[in-house]
């Protein structure tokens, strides 16, 4: 008898604690007041895809990915009353934050309208409309959509480059501000005009038993520096086609060159970086000694204050304009550091790439000495260059895929993957307008790609294709 009375009291207590929805009628209606349907909808949409699909969605730039985002926004409007009027960008990482920041919505509500709302409300559907969608969804579907960016997977021009060496430590291609391409082929340096497609031979070192190991234009595009196998640095007047001077100082080949105004820095296999002022030759030289093996990468920062150097000792060093010792040293790479590029968009941001045993792109804040994000590219990183117009960069690769990759920064999503070279893509230069790149490889070809192109009209695109025809 006491146990029966206890069970009766428990049923009575539970009956009193039930929500009001559950007591209406003879049906049990669960309460959903604590459910956030916006969050549930979002996670259901995320979890229905595999991890590989989620990874691919970050790299997607096609119309199908944008259609999926638009469809998801449409469903949120109709089911959750989200009130989205524009299609969000599929590349942004703020979708989850936007969903979580929305106010709570009750999916099942029982309301009594005392007075009908006039039709000018955004949430009202016209009585004459044949569409079941709300006005917000109609605005969403009519919102202007940014056209999908398309990067051509084939080069718009291919040039033969006989005797272009397959040597990771050399830098044999550079593009001047005057739209002249300099290429070191064996013992000669050739100039190719992107305006007229005319080819001229600037110099021939075979008479001295020497060969070209690096070329680099000054900022104005009037002078080209030529590094040689014997350790000389020659400076040539491109317009006049004459040698101005020949600098000594290195005891081994000069594989890296970098101009800083009227000063020229050269890196060599003798592990030394020499910096000289070409206006006051012969002048005092600065000897920068910090690498233990060959110097294969040199780049000055856009503000002309810091020099970044990469070496075969897997080190990335940063020098200022006055000290003879490096002010920063980064040792995270596991292979030679040839690929170096300073960001033109963010002060102090430096990107670097490692060789075959490393394969990583790494980013550094040289203002604080802090290592930023990194990513494994899967192949030897041979070159890096930033876009002048957008926060993007291009990398060229060697073993084992020989590809060219375009990246967004800081998300590090791949915008495009270009293939065509059959050997390592060792050489890279950017056009003076910042829209095209040229790549060179041991397959003895130079390939021109529209990678960072601005929006062009059809006539302009056709004129470019007609101008740059394949030369055999």
TrEMBL record:
WD repeat feature ranges: 205-246, 288-320, 418-451
Superkingdom of source: Eukaryota
Keywords, ordered alphabetically: Cell cycle, Cell division, Mitosis, Repeat, WD repeat
GO cellular component terms attached to this protein's record: anaphase-promoting complex
Gene Ontology terms describing biological process: anaphase-promoting complex-dependent catabolic process; cell division; positive regulation of anaphase-promoting complex-dependent catabolic process
A GO molecular-function descriptor: ubiquitin ligase activator activity
Pathway: Protein modification; protein ubiquitination
Limits of the CDC20/Fizzy WD40 domain: 159-449
Zinc keyword on record: no
The protein's name: Fizzy-related protein homolog
């Amino acid at each position: 008898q006491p146990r029966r009375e206890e069970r009766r009291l428990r049923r009575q207590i539970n009956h009193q604690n039930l929500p009001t929805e559950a007591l209406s009628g003879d049906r049990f209606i669960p309460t959903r007041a604590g459910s956030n349907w916006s969050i549930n909808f979002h996670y259901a949409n995320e979890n229905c895809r595999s991890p590989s699909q989620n990874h691919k969605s970050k790299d997607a730039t096609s119309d199908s990915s944008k259609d999926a985002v638009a469809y998801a926004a449409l469903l949120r409007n109709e089911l959750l009353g989200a009130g989205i009027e524009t299609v969000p960008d599929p590349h942004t990482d703020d979708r989850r934050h936007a969903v979580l920041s929305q106010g709570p919505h009750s999916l099942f509500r029982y309301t009594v309208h005392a007075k009908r709302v006039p039709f000018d409300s955004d949430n009202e559907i016209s009585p004459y409309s044949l569409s079941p969608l709300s006005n917000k969804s109609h605005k969403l579907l009519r919102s202007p959509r940014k056209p999908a960016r398309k990067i051509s997977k084939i080069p718009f021009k291919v040039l033969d480059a006989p005797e272009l060496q397959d040597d990771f430590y050399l830098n044999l291609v550079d593009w001047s501000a005057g739209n002249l391409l300099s290429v070191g082929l064996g013992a000669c340096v050739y100039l190719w005009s992107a305006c007229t497609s005319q080819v001229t031979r600037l110099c021939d070192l075979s008479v001295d038993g020497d060969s070209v190991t690096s070329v680099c234009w000054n900022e104005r595009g009037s002078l080209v520096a030529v590094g040689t196998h014997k350790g000389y640095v020659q400076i040539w007047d491109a317009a006049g086609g004459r040698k101005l001077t020949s600098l000594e100082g290195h005891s081994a080949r000069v594989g890296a060159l970098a101009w800083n105004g009227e000063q020229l820095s050269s890196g060599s296999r003798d592990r030394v970086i020499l910096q000289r002022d070409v206006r006051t030759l012969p002048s005092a030289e600065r000897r920068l000694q910090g690498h233990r093996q060959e110097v294969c990468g040199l780049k000055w920062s856009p503000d002309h204050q810091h020099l970044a150097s990469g070496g075969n000792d897997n080190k990335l060093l940063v020098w200022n304009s006055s000290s003879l010792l490096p002010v920063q040293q980064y040792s995270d790479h596991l292979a030679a550091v040839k690929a170096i590029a300073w960001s033109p968009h963010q002060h102090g941001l430096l990107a670097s790439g490692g060789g075959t045993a490393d394969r990583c792109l790494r980013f550094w804040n040289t203002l604080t000495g802090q290592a930023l994000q990194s990513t494994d590219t899967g192949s030897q990183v041979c070159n890096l260059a930033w876009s002048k117009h957008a926060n993007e960069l291009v990398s060229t690769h060697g073993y084992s895929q020989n590809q060219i990759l375009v990246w967004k920064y800081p998300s590090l999503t791949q915008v495009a993957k270009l293939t065509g070279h059959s050997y390592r893509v060792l050489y890279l230069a950017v056009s003076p307008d910042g829209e095209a790149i040229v790549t060179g490889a041991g397959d003895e070809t130079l390939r021109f790609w529209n990678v960072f192109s601005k929006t062009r009209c059809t006539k302009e695109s056709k004129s470019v294709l007609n101008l740059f025809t394949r030369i055999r």
